[in-house]
């Protein structure tokens, strides 16, 4: 498979991050903005355009979609809209994005990550079409697709066209994991009734949401609706491609997703990270790639995890001192994970298998006997249910939740295949 991740033994001994095999020869991948540009922007001619983007909205030469559309003949770019982190990426994770004026273009910038997350009628009055161009990470809890859902809702309500400029799913188009979001657990980190990993590009996801009536508001309590949706597909992308295979530059979509591989590790530890129970590398140089705590013996945990024979991943002992976030400034022992077979690994299961091993080695440190109960709600919202937490807490065994966690995978794969734009 293209983009297969392998362990480089010499790098492991040196304590370096995991690496990929050199990307195999593949057709040049053109993102939606490049296809739109190469076709003369014909879908936007004569229209007043509002652009929702961030620093990931670039072409292969790192030219911003803002600048491309601002200078496109026959296209009138009149407004910008800032999701989490802002149009220019100048806001830290979770920080409110303020409405402002973009200094480079002089255009108004409306915040979609503050007091207002869904565009108001006034924000959209001056435009004919909302263009969305943001690199996703393929995981339900990333807020950009939640912003997309609210854009779709506003576009339907105010009769505006919505255009999605498609980009690669960095996890490829085949990895699907996790259960659907259940009533009571819809939120900005789980806004749709889809699995945790959904195996679609953002253009495919938007089409599925629109056609299946899955955009039903942040609380999941609104009647389904459809907007006037246009997707500008990529050229040259296929479902077996990881991001390295595209040969496109990676622009970090979030400060803690600095490399394409970060998107692979995000679902392997990010759910656990919501509890603040141990370090997952956020606040250190390996975000989402490790598990560490002051009370962990690194060698023992690595041996215990490798002894389990978990498919597609290996662990090495390491010691760190995080600069910030969980256990900042403390000396920690733990493990760094290396995905060795992307096809076989169940990414989201890794964190639960680590918690199982920790409970066996350190019975007094079982996660839900020690985690901050104030974080349980966020943990449940990211999982899309409270069943995972409550059931795992009884015996601290992944086997107890495995079937439930993946109960919706087969059904979603069958449903989503109808909306594939790529093979």
Automatic annotation (TrEMBL):
Annotated GO MF terms: peptidoglycan beta-N-acetylmuramidase activity
Keyword Thylakoid: no
PANTHER family, alphabetized: HYPOTHETICAL 460 KDA PROTEIN IN FEUA-SIGW INTERGENIC REGION [PRECURSOR] (PTHR42915), PEPTIDOGLYCAN BETA-N-ACETYLMURAMIDASE NAMZ (PTHR42915:SF1)
Residue ranges of every copy of the Peptidoglycan beta-N-acetylmuramidase NamZ C-terminal domain listed in the record: 265-422
Protein name, UniProt field: DUF1343 domain-containing protein
Occurrences of domain Peptidoglycan beta-N-acetylmuramidase NamZ N-terminal (ranges): 49-260
Entries under InterPro entries matching the protein: NamZ, NamZ_C, NamZ_N
Organism: Candidatus Egerieousia excrementavium
Signal sequence, renumbered to the chain: 1-25
Coiled-coil residues: none
